[in-house]
Specification:
The protein has one helix at residues 7-41. With 50 residues, the protein is an all-alpha fold. Keywords: Membrane, Transmembrane, Transmembrane helix.
Length: 50
């Protein structure tokens, strides 16, 4: 799909960029939200030696 080289094309590209920025920010937020759960899955239980 080609975006035309005029004001309407620039506006549509800006809208697409604006929406995709929210998608990427939400994706990064979801990954950061899952870090504590991923950490609990990889936790190694240490036995008491005493």
């Amino acid at each position: 799909m080609m975006i035309s080289d005029n004001m309407a094309g620039a506006l549509s590209l800006s809208i697409i960029d604006f929406i995709l920025s929210f998608v990427f920010i939400a994706g990064i937020g979801a990954i950061l939200y899952l870090f504590p759960y991923i950490n609990k899955l990889g936790e190694i239980k240490e036995e008491d030696k005493y």
